[in-house]
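queue> holo job accepted (1-deoxynojirimycin)
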Amino acid sequence: MEKTWWKEAVVYQIYPRSFKDSNGDGIGDLKGILSKLDYIKKLGVDVIWLSPVYASPNDDNGYDISDYYSIMEEFGTMAEMEELIRRAHEIGLKIVMDLVVNHTSDEHQWFKESSSNENSDKRDYYIWKEAVDGREPTNWESIFKGSAWEWNEATGDYYLHLFSKKQPDLNWENPELRQDIYRMMRWWLNKGIDGFRMDVINMISKDNAYPDGPCPEGQRYGDGSAFFMNGPKIHEYLQEMNREVLSKYDIMTVGETPGVTPEDAVLYTGGKRHELNMVFQFEHMGLGDGPDGKWNNGPWELKELKRILAKWQTGLHHDGWNSLYWDNHDQPRAVSRFGHDGKYRKESAKMLAACLHMMQGTPYIYQGEELGMTNVAFDALDQYKDIETLNAYRDLVEGKGWTHEKMMSAIHARGRDNARTPIQWDDSPNAGFTNGTPWIEVNPNYQEINVKQALEDKNSVFYAYQKLIQLRKQHDIIVYGDFQLVAEDDEQVFAYKRCLGDETLLAICHFSDEQSEFVFPGELEGRKGELLFSNYESALCDGSAAVLRPFECLVYLYRS
Ligand code: NOJ
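queue> job finished
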C-alpha cells in the first residue's frame, strides 16, 4: 500500500462560530482560533479542518456562501486568515478549508444576476426549470424540508435548492461555472492552505431528465436522491477538478458523500481514479433512522454498527481510503449517542475514541470530542438555532401532527445543535467562550466538563486522545495494517484485529454499562501482548479471557 502523509494524519475539526470568541460579540472568530492553536497542537493532531469562514448571511451558519473570496465579518479579516495559515504552519499544523460548491447563498452576486436577468451571463450558473402543470418541476423534497424548488417571480420559473431556499444549487453542467470554481480553489491553495473538505460533493451532478422520486402514499413530496446523489457526471467533474487543480498541489481532499456504499467510495478514492483522497460515509450515522429519517431516532444494535464499520474497513483496504469519525458539526455528540453521558462518560468517551482510532483510515476529531462533551437538552424550541431543526419542527409538529414532546425528545437526541454549543474552556461564566452573550447557550455541564479541568487531570479524555494519536505515530500497523472483525456475534463487545507483517493488534471495546465476558481469539489466547491502551487505571486481564468492566477498552500489540 502506498504511504502518504494524509493517511498517517489526524484531523481536528473546528466549527468557528462555537470555538472561541475574542471580541465579546458572542460569536467565535479567527482571533479566537489563533489564541488556541497551542491547545490544538498539544493534542497532537496534524491538520485542522475549518468549517466555512467565507462571507455568508448565515442562513445555514456559513454553508451558504455569498463570496468565496472574503471572510465572514463576524469571524474577522483576510489578514487574520493569512496569519492563521502562517502561524499554523509555523507550529506544524496544516489547514484544510471547507469547499461548499454544490450551492451558494442566494445573496451571492452570481445568483443576484442569475435570478434578476434572463440575459445575464450568470443565468446558467444555477438550475432553472419551468413549472409543470402549474407546480414544481419535480416532487423532490428539500433536505431541509418543503419543496426543493422555489418560485422566482422576476423570471417566472423555479430554481433548485436541495437545502434551504437561500442555498440555490449551482449548475455544474456549465463549463464556465466549473472554471470559476477551479479558479477560486487555486486562489486559496496559492494562499497556502493544505486541502479541502468538500461539502455534499457527490450531489453536484443531477440527472438531466429530472424525474419525480418515489413518494409514500399521502405525502406531498418525494425522495429525489437517486437523481442527485452520485449523479451521471460526478466522476467526470471530479476528474476534471483533479486535473485542473488538485493534482497540482500536495494536499488532502475529503468529500462529504451521503448515501455512498464502499463500492462507490472506491470510485471516488481509488488510487488510479484521480479524484479524491477519501470520503465521509454516513451508514453508521443512520443507525436507528426511520421513515422521517433521524427524527425517528429508533434503537440501534452494536452488531449492526460492527457490521457496517467492518464492511467499510475491508471494502477499502486494498484500494481507496477511509475517513473515520463519530462526531462532526451535523451529528449529536457520540458519547451521548453511542456511549454513556452519565456515570461512565469518561470511560465511554475513551472507549469510543480507541475504537475509532485503532481502525484503518484518517481519524477526525470534532472540537469538544476530546473533552467528552455531551449533548445538550434545551427546554424551549427558541433556544435552538439550527435551520434544519427549526424546519423539521415545523414540518413534523405543525405538518404531520407530532406532539411537541415527541419532537423535543428527537431534537435532544439527534439535533445538530448538540454539536454546536460553545467549547467549554473553563468554569467561568459562559464557559470562558465569550465575554458577551453566546449566539447559542453553553451546555450547563461546563463546570464539570471543560478544557482547564481536562488539562489538569492526567486521566482525562483529552489525554486519552493524545495517547491514541501518539500510538498512531509510533505504530505503522495502526495506519496500514489490515482489519478483521473478531467475535462478530457478540452483542456487547466490538473487537477487531489489525495485522501487518509479523505484528497483530487486538482492540477490545466494550459498549455496555454492565460487565461482559470476552474470550480472546484462539490464535492469541494465552499469548503475552503489550497493553498499548486501556481506559481503566489497572487492566485486569490475563490474556485469555477478560471480564470487561462497563465501557472498558483494551488494546494489545503482539509480536511474533
Ligand atoms: C453538509 C454540511 O455539513 C451541513 O452542515 C450543511 O447544512 C449542508 N451540507 C449544506 O451545505
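queue> Residues 60, 63, 100, 163, 199-200, 256, 329-330 surround 1-deoxynojirimycin (CB under 6 Å).
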